Amino acid sequence: MKTQSFWEVTTPHRPEFPELEGNLDVDVAIIGGGITGITTALQLTDAGRSVAVLEARRVGGGTTGWSTGNLYVPTGAYYHKIQGSRDAETITSVAAARRSALDFIEQQTVQKKIDCHFSRRPWYFFTQEKDMVSTIEKEVEALQRAGMPVTFVDDIPLLPRARFQKAARMDGQARFHPLRYVLGIATDIASRGCQVYEHTTVIDLKEEKDHCTIQTNHGTVTCRQVVIATHIPIGIHTVQTVAAPHRSYVIAVKLKSGNYPDAYFWQNDTMHKAITTHSTDSMELDMLMIAGNHHKTGQASHQEYHHYFKELEDYARKHFDVASVEYRWSAQHYRSGDGVPYIGLTHKDARRTYIATGFYADGLIYGTVAGILLGDMLVGKENTWLKAFDATRGTNLATAATFVKENVNVAAQYLKDSPFSADAEHLSEISLGEGKVLEMDGEKVAVYRDENNHLHACSAVCTHMKCIVHWNNAENTWDCPCHGSRFMIDGSVIEGPAIANLETKQIDSSNGRLVKDERHHSGQRDLNNPIT
Amino acid sequence: MTTIYIAIGFFALAALLGMYLLSFVLRGKETPKAIVFTHGPLAAIGIILLIVYILKGGPNPWESLVLFVLAALGGIYMVFRDLTGKPIPRLLAVGHGLLAVTGFVLLLVFALNG
Fold this sequence. Notes:
The complex is a heterodimer.
Chain A: H1 6-9, E1 24-31, H2 35-46, E2 51-54, E3 70-71, H3 79-85, H4 88-111, E4 119-127, H5 133-145, E5 150-152, E6 166-175, H6 178-191, E7 195-197, E8 202-207, E9 212-216, E10 220-228, E11 244-255, E12 264-267, E13 273-278, E14 287-296, H7 306-319, E15 322-335, E16 342-345, E17 353-357, H8 363-378, H9 386-389, H10 397-414, E18 434-440, E19 443-449, E20 455-459, E21 470-472, E22 477-479, E23 486-487, E24 493-495, E25 504-505, E26 507-508, E27 513-514
Parallel strand pairs in A: 1-2, 1-10, 2-7, 4-12, 10-17
Antiparallel strand pairs in A: 3-6, 4-6, 5-6, 8-9, 9-10, 11-14, 11-15, 12-13, 13-14, 16-17, 18-19, 19-20, 20-25, 21-22, 22-23, 23-24, 26-27
Helix pairs in contact in A: 2-6, 2-8, 3-4, 3-5, 4-8
Chain B: H1 2-26, H2 33-55, H3 62-83, H4 90-113
Helix pairs in contact in B: 1-2, 1-4, 2-3, 3-4
């Protein structure tokens, strides 16, 4: 089964936004048209700023449209762990920010009459394993300390009391259709003067003394401030030394009974699962989703990526009366060193460039938090959340271990790039629909053989920081194991920090060797291959 | 003197890998990063051993050390350029190699005379 986001399929009337044509001068340029960029644009448009949103692909078509549509105050990084690496004040601030963001989304859906199935419902947190009870207890205690109304319960809609060890519940959480919501906001701000551009790829960005200059594939944007809302900052950035990329998997299933619980569940066992329900085209619940199986991008423990979906499907069939598996997809998230996102000025000397990253798998709420916080920062309004999220806070002793661990991991990926080490020696070893890295004429080449037996070849050297990409056979993409850049089979960037596409290669079919190309020097990137 | 001979061993291994890397740079190809990140640490260990020897006092190959340190700075700069997507100037790569080879020859002469 092909991977396809439920949200993409259930968005019937998707508005089109134009490509940038020529040069532009605005107060604020926002790179990225996901929930973070669009919420920031909303706040700044409301504040009277001239704003341009520059989206490389489609608005909401990145992680926002490939999420699971849940809105909740808890966080996958766990408040009790955040308190360990930061302090009690931080968790109070983070919880308050997340609750405000949830209220903000509800307010927008009502005010702007966005048909995105927003509905309040409870969140349940439970475990079936004795060893995990203490985690539930610690997290409930931390949430209560942060002022959140969470309580232990003896019944949950999914399981009889005898089948779980400990459970907690928090009311007032919510579900919505994230793509419809973001497109609704984008349509609203575009009608009020915000310039939203799709298929407009940023290829360079410079902060000058009194302005910023952004080069795109269609023109130059000059602005006073810039927000990099691309999930992880594009290009090379110090935050990439701690914000580790992970992929997680989702399946959406129909149930024979048609009995879909109206709640969001976290099963906190050794293998964490998130269980949720949503509706296709009305407020009536008709789809159950199960998410989980995180692993570092490009570093799957199973070469067969389909394993991750299969494991979710087995889980679903074991616990629910599954009629059919309708959709399956995967999404990326970045984890911060201390469990709290990095939002604000990009570094201590920056005056005009802002970032938002490290959302864990809680990005719909954190993206909204970032939009509200950045909106305030850019108009000079004080916001008490800044202390918790400040992107310039650096690493402390508690996060130093994460810093070391992540960078040792990156170094280990580089050490795999040795001569004569490749997935295959000959093109004939690549089956139909399969991708492998080959060494050809002293170069690592990523080769994919499509179902029509055509070869698609590009350099296997990631254009971000030169790691060797790995084949992801569930999504037919090339994924970089170092910093999470992902590329399509033609080498074009899907997401991640890479700006330039993988360099395309030509293979001489008569002898199976690379066609010589003298344009490139060692170390040089190919920027002349924009995403289309 | 044993320290010097061990240092020479590390420099010799680093030199072999360095020549291999140079062949990639001169052909305009991406360098294999496993070799890059092995070549550098091998040379760094050689430099540390050389410093240890010099700190013991007495006659010492300080000219070699200066040349190796200059070569190392050039190497770090090339790695920085490589990983950040900037082309590696071929002249810099050759110069880096020549500095190191000169330092290596002077070190050999010192060891053989000692």
